[in-house]
Amino acid sequence: MVYLIFGGNSYVALNKISELKQAFFKKAGSAAISDFSEEELAKRPREVFSQLFQDSLFFAKKLVILRNASSAPDFFKLAEENTESLKASRNIFVFLESATAKAKENKALETLKKISEKTQEAKILSGGELDKWLQKKAGELGLKLSKEEREVMISEAGDGAEWALEGMLEKIVLGGELNAKKTTAVSTPFAFVEKIFSAPFGRALLALKEAEAAGQDLQRIIYPLLWKAKQKKMPDAYWQGILAESAMRRNPKNAYEILEKFILGIK
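The structure corresponding to this sequence follows.
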């Protein structure tokens, strides 16, 4: 099965990828999930392609994430030449295309749309759509925001609006403005992210431990960490985060140790 997720909204795309990964993880563990970066597809096209169809005795099918395959021409050519094999496989191949969102006319994206059995566009939300999203997200945290408050928050969010708005909601939550019925409703990772960046090394490690104990997805928490590094204009920390994200995709079982090294690197 071939599944295409494309568009410039990283929040929507990465949340969908996270949902798929969690579903497979519950059934067969991390061994059933392969996640290949654009760099891996470009450097090892034939090796990666040969791995796509390897069967296992331990699980019925695999989830394979292929990030920006259209930007790895040798790999993409192999995929294009073997579309029937991809469709016939019992594995699920997810093409995640963020790079193609920049081009209005992109032959590679059109090709992927034709061969994909399911497609989802991770589009940038309009002002009205973002307002509805913010109302829903605030409601999940027990918050009721006025129209004026939402307009101010959206105007300040800028690029990557959903990530930024989650951070703003988290600050409201930490300020004790929750509905009494929702005092334990904190479900976003931003409380831990702020501690990891602001606290001394020992307390930052403690925040990581608290995040794990609270049930946070350690692989997913790297994305708000990257957002925070960008917000704080810390290019070295942002680069360390990129390396950590890549390392966790290759070795998800060691996510905690990889994040420990990331924290050490930014202190």
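Confidence is low (pLDDT under 50) at residues 176-187.
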